[in-house]
Amino acid sequence: MDSAFDQAYAAHRAGRLGDAEHGYRAALDANPADADALHLFGVLRHQQGRHAEAADLVGRAVALRPDDPAFRLNLGNALKALGRLDEAIDRFRDALTLAPEFPLAHYNLGNAYAVQERHADAVAAFERALRLTPGDASIHNNLGNALNALGRHDDALAAFRRALELRPGHAGAHNNLAMALSAIGRTDEAIAHFRAAIAAEPRFVAAHFNLGNTLDAVGRHREATAAFEAALALHPAFPLALFGLANALAAQDRHRDALPYYERTVGLDPAFTLAWLNLGTAHHALGAHEMALRAFDQALRAAPDLTLAQLHRAVTLLTLRDFARGLPAYEARHATPGAPALGPLPRWQGEPIASRTLLIRAEQGFGDTLQFVRFVPLARERCARVVLEVQPELVPLLAPAAAQWHVTLVARGVAMPPADVACTLMSLPFALGLHADMIAGNGRYLSAPDAARRRFRGSLGGHAKRKFGIVWTGRQQARDNRSMPLATLDPLFALPDVDWIVLQPDVAGEERAQLDAHPRIHRVDGRLTDFAETAALIERLDGVVAIDTAVAHLAGALGKPLWLMLPFAADWRWFTGDDCPWYPGARLVRQSAVGRWDDVVRTIADALRAA
User: Fold this and answer.
1) 413-440 pLDDT, tens per residue?
2) Phi, psi of 373 (to 5 degrees)
């Protein structure tokens, strides 16, 4: 008749853990010093996730039989599961001292090193294991992970591919190979291997999640949405997948759909700073500015130095015309990645400097410079001398105004005159202590240079009584909401008494053919070589219809009638109403919902028809 231990061992091997536990207890009742029963009962407890009991049981077995490498190995496994990695590593080394060619000990030692991010040590351990068991796919797979962590991507790819040669349906190797391919920009191959991992193991949550992240990163947001949803169907309380799904929805301008997923993310993980940040961004995009502020405040409670949260909060405050809080917070933009360097000069804080020179530097796009240059004369009143550095393309246009303001104008990139203090152009309202009601302009503050005007003395073409400039596409950027299809403008082009002058410097080939086929649309792009010439042309027009671009700011600065086509979530400087304190001659026409440019165009067409 089999002993209690033999019966327990047979039950354990058959997976009948309850019977095995009963047998091991009986064996230990009969002989408390039964090292094998202690050892295997500890292994059973480790399998059950009761790692502290496992470590105690196997530790007692090791004390009884210190020269058994398997006991040392399994004690190390229990300690590793408890997070006691240094002790686990010592036990694995003990096992290898007793049995230097024990491949499983090398393998587990490598895994422990990997958890400690000692990836070079992990590589060495895995390679020793493979010299003993070269056909083990799992070791090749884990070696690949360690190599990838060291940036040895080609070697990692070879390790993962070898794992798949040995075990073609190894879902983990497919997933890890995909991660390595993604890291070196081979996205299409990565996506194929993520899908192969899922085909091999349909409930592989990490593969669904990683597929979603990869698809979202390359702009395939709808496919990413499906991948994140698949991950969440398997693991609903997965904050990173909830966050990824919300981001993918937001990237499709489905901000309302994204909100509950951001909210569930922060509900599961209240310290998830980026989720609070993006929740605020979604609220802002929907016009729920107070809700946005609360989310940004939560982000900053979790991470007070998070520059993006500071900046998004500032933009929301400025959208609400709260300059007192918004302008100081908006200075956080200087700390964002890619922000232009302010240089070594001390920052000007708006104080009078009767004998010193202030350098004012343009910092963002052409439109920002055209809009904020209005504040240069106010700064000049407080300073002995002002040097204004702007983009070279704007120098011919701004030169007359600079001369009138007694300001030295220089192009970015040329030798700079000496200065004592510096300020960026868009920091002038903050330095000058302005409030929202102090930005209202009385009309034009720029004019086209005489030389540019002379170049546009001839006919502009067309015979209609009125001539309007048109701009429908801004500088193309990722997820740019300042662009619309040319066909959307058909209600404007159908107006019988208006000739349209295209003010965009670049028009795509297909759109160029459509424009040239229309008798009342005229392209002059070959004659517009700089902003000075564009200004001279705008001065001869009855008005401008434009999306939010530099041309719109130029028309406003010239005091021309302007119909500004704005997205639902417009830039902060257009605030939340229909009035435009920056440009008294401008009418703001906003989308009624995200993407609804047709309503905007129809409103402007009706206004021009009635004028």
Assistant:
1) 898 899 999 999 999 999 999 988 888 7
2) -65, -15
